Amino acid sequence: MIDVLAVLGDRATIARQPAFRIEQTDDAVTTAAYHALRTEVFVREQGLFTGHDRDDRDDDPRTVVLVARDGAGEVLGGVRLGPATEGPDLGWWLGGRLVVAPASRGMIGAALIRAACAYAENAGVLRFEATVQTRNEPLFTRLGWTTVRPVSVADTPHVLMRWPIGRIAALAQATKSDLGPLLAGLTGVPGFVGDDGVPVPGSDLVAACDAILPSMVERDPDWAGWCSVLVNVNDLAAMGAEPVGLLDALGARDRSFAARVLAGLRRASQAYDVPVLGGHTQLGVPAALSVTALGRTARPVPGGGGRPGHRVRLTADLAGSWRPGYAGRQWDSTTSRRTPELRAMLGAVATARPAAAKDVSMAGVVGTLGMLAESSGCGAVLTVADVPRPSAATVGDWLTCFPGFAMLTADEPGAAPLVSPAVSAECGELVAGSGVTLRWPDGEETAAIEAGVTGLGTS
């Protein structure tokens, strides 16, 4: 690039070229240079190790090495990071062996730390930690890390530090936090405040209503039509209600666009065997789509029926894959299912009748668990290793995506699981307090959501 700029006479841009660049190692020569630099610093200069500082993490194929190079390609520093546990990646990573050549110390260390944090977050990590020499604690603190506790490495004082990853809390904040103030004073049904659907007083009917994001309708009209049915029948299923019919309201710029939305809606209606009873269609307007669903049950299951001590269970359809164009955000398991399978999943809550149930919404698994706990007047702990998850999804993506079909339920210990083609597993419990905490394999617990999600309060 510099040669091209020189030919163009762009000396100003050449002068602004950074003194180093950071990249992931992709060859044995660069990795060897990084290891040699570690030996120079940690063995010869600091005397922390004898002979070498290599360990099992260097041999783990999942370990990532980031290096800083100067303009000539020489390795000036590096850092490694990767999963903290053997087996499946649970979204808990460790950083370490941060090293910078003596003649290059200054900005490079901080840049490598920032690059490692960004890489970990992009990899779907929800817990990222590093053991840091005590003298380097102020640097990490200035970069936003928090100190967990003192530790010892190679008989030398270190501190365990943690990078705060706010992905879950940010999602809950963006999607649900305004609901309480906005909806204050609106009439609700006692015992079902904030539920996925609402019992119609004086009847055995349950009504649910969901709108699809206009940007999604514009971008992928067929999928939007399918999802308008999916999210509504899931809402009824969480209440233990059997769907009986749908009403749709569609706005579209022209007949052709409306036909594409309705094609997806029609396919979903047929797949779920739930008829469209009527609705409204308006042409010549910006894209808009909402669907109301009606179902029946004499005993609706509340979202706020949980109590401290209840076990939390996630029942999720792990089949399928990421919807094209929505990787990491929307999991599509339903379009490949047959009608009997879809209906069996919709009937799982009605059969098991747990104390509380909510279908996983745009707030993701953790955000939805926070809503269930909030409406139940308590908090929740989610055991990350026990959460059923498709192998193609990182923990960070899975816990924050819209998963197609997924139900969170709470009930007494030993209660019957939800039976359906979906995978069901106990993965936590409700506790006194508020918010949601993640429990990790080492017993450590980290806060994911500090308090209530919606502000709607106890149901």
From TrEMBL:
It comes from the Bacteria. CDD domains: NAT_SF (cd04301). Residues 18-166 form the N-acetyltransferase domain. InterPro entries: Acyl_CoA_acyltransferase, GNAT_dom, MSMEG_0567/sll0787_C, MSMEG_0567_GNAT, PurM-like_C_dom, PurM-like_C_sf, PurM-like_N, PurM-like_N_sf. Pfam families: Acetyltransf_1, AIRS, AIRS_C. Transmembrane segments: none annotated. This is MSMEG_0567/sll0787 family protein. It comes from Lentzea rhizosphaerae.
